[in-house]
Design goal:
The structure holds two protein chains of two kinds. By secondary structure, chain A is of the alpha+beta class. Chain A has a domain of 112 residues. In chain A, helix 5 packs across helix 6. Chain B has two domains: 66 residues, no CATH class; 214 residues, 2-Layer Sandwich (Alpha-Beta Plaits), CATH 3.30.70. The longest helix of chain B has 19 residues. The radius of gyration of chain B is 22 Å and the shape is globular. Classes of the chains: A alpha+beta, B alpha+beta. Chains A and B meet through helix 6 and strand 4 of A and helix 5, strand 10 and helix 10 of B.
Chain lengths: 178, 325
């Protein structure tokens, strides 16, 4: 099937003719424009907005072990060699927002701006679509997960998983391959 | 003759009159080295019965037997063949399926990239591929094999595809999924004696399952162990059949033919991502158009440390492996 003359192939392609089957290609069945949606995060947090409790509390900026609602976070919080604490990422002025290093507030649905302020290489790759999960259409509407939809920001290592079962042995188990 | 068996040909590819059909069938009945008088009489009776009905050439079994090569089919031929195949599935499995034949997109060259820094060997891709592409569980066929390798080694033959662990990733190991690399210079295509497999304009290597004679030369030629053979009639439960089927990709295969990954061409030629990519929970899998400078795949090739398997063979795979840093 293969045509060995490259000039002929390129000639046929330039005529809009398939060099393999000699027929013109169909009109594109795929969308021609890509659009990107970022999957929101805040609506996946059961206790959001945080202000529904925190509006009744006085903010305390002293670093301490939490003893009330967020007690589990004490053990779980392992990010940045355990050097971080709540108000380094959560805003003390507006508890429904996150705060980035330059002091500006961002929503939970823009967590990439906060994560990327330390993890710049990952932030850049995520923006380019190289890091993280993007689903839908390679050309057309696509949807990308936010950093915090895959990584728990308080314990950011990707969790270990139970794998799907191994394949059946080739040739009914007679193969010597491991 | 069962319609779902691989058709074998004896030189004639068309039938113009009932007399030809009769002669062809008689010739086959007589030619077999183990022909007995009983087989001959049985065959003659069968031919006589079908001639009496006057429908030998319209019989689905006959049409499947003398079907032309895919590249010689007209749109009308395809329409008729797809309907026949759809009816066959409905009769044997009780499932209504839709067989389509999306052609390559204009100016698109597909390529795949896989991030070895984040793949954790969970095999979700393997199972999603099986469901999407109607792969049988018994006997089991899987297009993707995930190889578990020791860190800082790259000896594929010492890898383990049968790892069975409580949790992955196992410390000290890394995971390398392998599937069809859609080579730019595919050895499998050269090996095929019947031209039942070829490379399409968008870079996908496809198989006409109705033209494959099951010699398995392509399987031997593939350096990536990407091709699978249907040793037995594929046994797939009706509730697991994906009704969105491509003639050159995931339609139900007969026994005795070779199959492999097609980058889910029935999805990707309509703009969608392949099923394995969407199933990956780690985001390791990236897919796109090499001709589009803004595509993810081009950025990976430009910015990341990229390699291909067995580069020295000159197959020029369209499947790249890369690392984050």
């Amino acid at each position: 099937m293969a045509l060995t003359a490259p000039w002929l192939c390129s000639f046929l392609v330039s005529c809009g003719v398939d060099p393999v089957d000699g027929r013109p290609p169909d009109a594109d069945q795929a969308p021609t424009v890509s659009t990107l949606t970022i999957e929101p995060r805040s609506q996946l947090i059961p206790t959001f907005p945080c202000s529904q409790c925190h509006s009744k509390l006085t903010p305390n900026s002293t670093r301490r072990q939490l003893t009330a609602f967020h007690v589990v976070r004490n053990a779980e919080l392992d990010h940045g060699d355990r050097s971080l604490w709540c108000y380094q990422c959560h805003s003390i002025k507006n508890i429904d927002k996150l705060v980035i290093a330059n002091g500006s507030l961002v929503s939970f649905d823009e967590a990439n701006l906060l994560c990327g302020s330390c993890h710049g290489d990952k932030g850049r790759d995520w923006r380019a679509g190289l890091h993280g999960s993007t689903v839908g259409y390679w050309r057309g509407p696509k949807s990308r997960k936010l950093c915090t939809n895959c990584h728990n920001p308080h314990y950011p290592w990707f969790p270990t998983m139970t794998p799907e079962p191994p394949p059946a042995p080739a040739h009914g188990g007679g193969e010597t391959e491991k | 003759m069962a319609t779902n068996e691989s058709p074998r040909r004896n030189g004639t590819s068309d039938c113009s009159a009932h007399g030809d059909c009769e002669q062809a069938q008689l010739a086959r009945a007589e030619a077999g080295p183990s022909s007995t008088r009983r087989q001959f009489l049985t065959m003659s009776a069968a031919v006589g019965a079908s001639l009496a009905a006057g429908t030998a050439c319209n019989d689905p079994a006959f049409q499947a037997y003398f079907q032309k090569h895919y590249l010689q089919l007209t749109d009308a031929d395809k329409q008729r063949i797809f309907e026949r195949l759809e009816q066959e599935v409905e009769q044997t499995k009780g499932v209504r399926v839709k067989i389509s034949d999306p052609r390559p997109l204009r100016n698109v060259q597909f390529a795949y990239a896989l991030n070895l820094s984040v793949c954790n060997g969970n095999r979700r891709c393997v199972e999603a591929c099986a469901r999407e592409n109607n792969l049988p569980d018994d006997p089991q066929i899987r297009y993707i094999r995930v190889v578990e390798l020791d860190n800082v080694t790259h000896h594929l033959e010492r890898g383990n595809v049968y790892y069975d662990r409580e949790k992955v990733p196992e410390p000290g190991k890394y995971y390398l999924p392998v599937q069809c690399h859609q080579c730019k210079n595919p050895p499998c295509v050269k090996a095929c004696p019947t031209k039942a497999t070829w490379k399409e304009r968008d870079g996908i290597v496809v198989i006409d399952y109705n033209w494959c004679i099951g010699c398995r030369y392509c399987q031997a030629a593939c350096p990536y162990h990407a091709r699978r053979f249907n040793f037995a009639k594929p046994n797939i439960k009706p509730d697991k059949i994906n009704p969105d089927q491509g003639y050159l990709s995931n339609r139900l295969r007969p026994m005795g033919v070779v199959e492999k990954c097609t980058f889910c061409l029935h999805r990707t030629r309509k703009g969608r991502y392949p099923a394995c990519l969407e199933a990956c929970p780690t985001g390791a899998r990236k897919f796109g158009d090499l001709n589009d400078p803004s595509s993810e795949i081009r950025k990976i090739l430009k910015e990341k440390r990229v390699y291909v398997l067995k580069e020295e063979l000159g197959t020029e795979p369209r499947f790249f492996y890369f690392y984050d840093d």
